């Protein structure tokens, strides 16, 4: 196995920078994640990330194929370096590559830097989502669930599951997925003075992948935040398309396609538009542990009577198909039923009632192995 000392003479090519880390490609096969260790800002913690990666990759359990492999690590001055295999394509890249341009309109625009001239700009009317749900959806869903089951069984909450943090090992079929980036993950089995179990940081996850309980400051959250993020990823596969280039919409929206950082308020409003507003008694974790006054002040305590879990099974399925319209494109009725059941189990605001990843895998395996 290669180690970092063997790569010291290799040229490093910067691929990406974040607030606290740099990702460099080394040669053709590896990447090095370098993170400052003298400036730790919760929920970021490079030492915790290292311990989590060691636990997932070298622990007592057999390593999971859906988790990125940690190849080596070392401290260099004020940075911690982690060595990983290089994969060039993220799940987000793949999803966006499946969008097909559907028509355009041309319009003349004045360009102030080219005096006396006008530039022609072609503005897309619609990008159709060509992600083949019959080929990819069930298999990718199972792989993501398998990865999450391994993560959760080791006591880890990922806290930033999104297509950008899932790599594809190749573009040949079958596609193999790898979950990456445990930089803000949380280990429930160890004592963390910066984040006690009932006082976890709620400013985790990214844009519209953020779970509802996080939006209302429930700090004693658990693995269910990852299940919600998975639900949002699935919803992106089943949307019809987008009027915005290089954007894969979900069933909820925080405005991040137009705003630099998105808006939690917009996310909350679209969330309740899609799933309905529960009474405060149907969401006890917000009532007892979250921002109950903010919730009731904005939305009242009685709900709107449209909360999806108050509906019959048939009405729930109708609502789900409205929010995930390309479910109708699934040709195998058993797979369609599986997705409807799983989505129904995941689309629950009270996280203690949200399906676990083991429940999801039981439903998936019941269909795919029959």
List keywords for this structure.
370 residues, alpha+beta, Phosphorylase Kinase, domain 1, five-stranded antiparallel sheet, three-stranded antiparallel sheet, 11 helices
- Tally the beta strands: 15
- Tell me the helix content: 25-40%
Q: What is the name of the CATH superfamily of the largest domain?
A: Transferase(Phosphotransferase) domain 1
Low-confidence stretches: 105-120
CATH architecture of the largest domain: Orthogonal Bundle
Spatially, the strands of the biggest sheet line up as 1-2-3-5-4
* Biggest β-sheet strands, sense, barrel: 5 strands, antiparallel
Q: Taking Cα atoms only, what radius of gyration do you get, to the nearest Å?
A: 22 Å
CATH class of the largest domain: Mainly Alpha
- Mean of the pLDDT scores? 92
Strand content: 15-25%
Number of helices: 11
The tally of domains stands at 2
Instruction: Indicate the overall shape.
Output: globular
Distance between the termini: 39 Å
Alpha-beta content class: alpha+beta
SSE sequence, one letter per element: EEEHEEEHEEEEHEEEEHHEHHHHHH
């Amino acid at each position: 196995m290669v180690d970092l000392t063997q790569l010291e003479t290799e040229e490093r090519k910067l691929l990406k920078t974040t607030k606290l880390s740099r990702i460099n490609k080394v040669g053709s096969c590896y990447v090095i994640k370098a993170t400052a260790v003298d400036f730790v800002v919760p929920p970021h913690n490079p030492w915790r990330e290292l311990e989590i990666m060691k636990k997932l990759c070298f622990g007592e359990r057999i390593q999971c194929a859906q988790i990125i492999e940690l190849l080596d690590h070392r401290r260099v001055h004020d940075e911690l370096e982690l060595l990983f295999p290089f994969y060039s394509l993220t799940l987000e890249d793949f999803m966006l590559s499946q969008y097909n341009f559907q028509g355009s309109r041309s319009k003349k625009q004045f360009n102030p830097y080219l005096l006396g001239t006008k530039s022609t700009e072609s503005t897309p009317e619609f990008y159709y989502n060509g992600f083949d749900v019959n080929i990819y959806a069930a298999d990718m869903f199972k792989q993501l669930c398998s990865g999450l089951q391994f993560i959760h069984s080791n006591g880890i909450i990922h806290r930033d599951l999104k297509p950008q943090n899932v790599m594809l090992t190749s573009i040949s079929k079958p596609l193999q997925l790898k979950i990456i980036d445990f930089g803000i993950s949380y280990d429930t089995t160890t004592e963390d003075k910066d984040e006690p179990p009932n006082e976890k940081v709620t400013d985790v996850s990214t844009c519209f992948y953020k779970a509802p309980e996080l939006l209302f400051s429930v700090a004693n959250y658990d693995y269910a935040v990852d299940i919600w993020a998975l639900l949002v990823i699935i919803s992106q596969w089943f949307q019809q398309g987008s009027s915005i280039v290089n954007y894969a919409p979900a069933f909820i929206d925080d405005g991040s396609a137009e705003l630099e950082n998105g808006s939690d308020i917009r996310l909350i409003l679209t969330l309740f538009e899609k799933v309905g507003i529960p009474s405060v008694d149907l969401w006890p974790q917000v009532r007892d542990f979250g921002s109950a006054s903010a919730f009731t002040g904005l939305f009242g305590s009685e709900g709107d009577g449209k909360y999806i879990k108050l509906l019959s099974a048939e009405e729930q399925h109708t609502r789900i198909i409205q929010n995930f319209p390309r479910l109708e494109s699934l040709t195998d009725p058993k797979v369609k039923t599986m997705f409807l059941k799983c989505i129904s189990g995941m689309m629950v605001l009270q996280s203690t009632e949200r399906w676990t990843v083991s429940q999801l895998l039981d439903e998936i395996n019941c269909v795919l192995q029959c």
